[in-house]
């Protein structure tokens, strides 16, 4: 449909027809026609909020409207029906469509049907008071008025934020103070409220705060993952209010005002030094508030809750909810993630990828493409070094971990006595054992290249030549294959003319030995 309101708004700002046509994606002829019809009907910006593009269209083109007339619903009857339990606009629209089909009449589409009804309700100043079903909804919000916590030593003042939740049917309320409005406290407040009520409602109606709702548009609602996980545990559904529509949860809005009077204002002359002290005082006032008699009907919030609502609440889950907070992070080159206090490793091949991090009081978990790739017990104490699993490291990092005396000795002992003796010689050759790590690491590479059996024979042959063998000698023995020569006799017995250890011989230079 043509955006008549936007065309008239831009006209009031003295934009040209060409500019307006480009902005609203309509032709200049259409813009010119709207200008002309607006002048005829005396329309000028600003327009009333309730005047929609459809209403302007009906005003501009009544002939076309009459030629394609649609059956107008009985809005007064709809209003009465909506007050009945379980009746929704969707149900009324379906019944309206069936009636139109049976009478061969044209019906409104659902969106226009709802818009027309709401327009009628505003025009007649009708207030839709739909009695909530017991156990159906739980409206939640942060109160606008904060309270204060004082430091015992310095007297410094800090803010305490008040969570308010109410069951609309009985108006039974729950109130608790928290040091901040972070996601953990928001979810903890829900958990405490459910425990206070002794049950769970079918739906939860929050505002569009970022700790609970990431995005809420006409087409989609994206909830905070931690908030959604909590709802799944309690088998409830989160249905946020429309953006900037606080009347979608009128009961909690009213309870917020009552809370400001009967709890916050009642405690205004008291000083609290901890959140626990403040909550102890709040809970006492909350009991008084819920037991306070209604002004315009019999009973109190407490009696209404016990008599009308509590039997209809869903039971609490068998296992208590474990608070989990989700976040995302891109894995850096050190293949570490953090819980804010300590760092934990993930598989190195995820470097550069975005992973989901799930934090509970006891565990740290990382997920990639829906699969868990790492899990650690969550450390309560801060560690200077990251917590790394060997299987998460690349091969060269794993080998670097072997660069210590104990690891080299254990490795060489698993190969053989000659290799062990050689490693001991390397470690004892310098003034400190670390000076022998390079030779030991080279020895491990020779084992990877030639195999453990050949390395053991090469070390044995090298030790027969000298008590202090070097990597160069062992490498030469392996490269020339001398470790494969029968070693039943010593080198001096094999070559009596050699008194100075290993010699290459004529065969090395391509010569032939004369018999």
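-> sequence recovered:
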């Amino acid at each position: 449909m043509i955006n008549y309101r936007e065309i008239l708004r831009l006209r009031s700002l003295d934009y040209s027809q060409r500019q307006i046509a480009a902005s609203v994606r309509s032709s200049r002829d259409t813009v010119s026609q709207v200008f002309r019809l607006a002048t005829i009907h005396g329309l000028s910006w600003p327009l009333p909020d309730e005047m929609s593009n459809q209403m302007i269209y009906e005003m501009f083109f009544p002939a076309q409207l009459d030629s394609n007339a649609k059956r107008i619903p009985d809005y007064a009857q709809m209003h009465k029906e909506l007050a009945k339990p379980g009746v929704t606009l969707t149900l009324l629209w379906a019944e309206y469509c069936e009636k139109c089909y049976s009478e061969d009449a044209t019906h409104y589409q659902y969106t226009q049907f709802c818009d027309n009804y709401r327009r009628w309700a505003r025009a007649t100043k009708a207030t839709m008071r739909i009695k909530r079903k017991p156990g159906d909804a739980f409206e939640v919000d942060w109160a606008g008025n904060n309270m204060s916590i004082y430091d015992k030593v310095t007297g410094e003042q800090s803010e305490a934020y008040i969570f308010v939740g109410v069951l609309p049917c009985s108006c039974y309320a729950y109130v608790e103070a928290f040091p901040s409005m972070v996601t953990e406290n928001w979810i903890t407040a829900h958990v405490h409220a459910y425990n206070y009520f002794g049950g769970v409602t079918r739906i939860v109606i929050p505002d569009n705060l970022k700790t609970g709702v990431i995005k809420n548009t006409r087409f989609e609602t994206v909830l905070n993952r931690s908030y959604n996980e909590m709802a799944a545990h309690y088998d409830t559904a989160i249905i946020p209010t429309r953006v900037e529509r606080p009347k979608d949860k009128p009961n909690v809005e009213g309870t917020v005002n009552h809370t400001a009077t009967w709890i916050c204002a009642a405690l205004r002359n008291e000083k609290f030094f901890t959140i626990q002290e403040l909550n102890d005082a709040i809970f006492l006032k909350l009991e008084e508030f819920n037991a306070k008699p209604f002004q315009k009907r019999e009973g109190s919030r407490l009696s209404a809750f016990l008599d009308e609502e509590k039997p209809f609440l869903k039971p609490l889950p068998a296992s208590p909810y474990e608070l989990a907070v989700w976040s995302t992070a891109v894995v850096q080159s050190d293949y570490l993630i953090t819980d804010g206090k300590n760092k934990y490793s993930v598989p190195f091949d995820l470097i550069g990828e975005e992973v989901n991090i799930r934090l509970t009081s006891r565990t740290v978990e990382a997920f990639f493409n829906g699969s868990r790739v790492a899990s650690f017990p969550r450390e309560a104490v801060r560690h200077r070094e990251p917590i790394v699993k060997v299987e998460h490291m690349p091969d060269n990092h794993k080998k670097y971990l072997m660069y210590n005396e104990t690891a080299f000795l254990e490795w060489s002992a698993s190969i053989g006595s000659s290799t062990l003796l050689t490693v001991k010689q390397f470690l004892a050759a310098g003034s400190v054992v670390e000076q022998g790590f390079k030779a030991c690491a080279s020895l491990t590479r020779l084992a990877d290249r030639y195999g453990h059996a050949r390395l053991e024979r090469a070390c044995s042959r090298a030790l027969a030549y000298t008590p202090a063998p070097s990597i160069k000698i062992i490498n030469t023995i392996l490269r020339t294959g001398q470790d494969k020569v029968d070693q039943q006799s010593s080198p001096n017995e094999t070559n009596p003319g050699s008194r100075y250890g290993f010699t290459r011989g004529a065969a090395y230079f391509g010569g032939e030995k004369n018999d």
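The chain has four domains: 4-123, 137-312, 325-392, 402-496.
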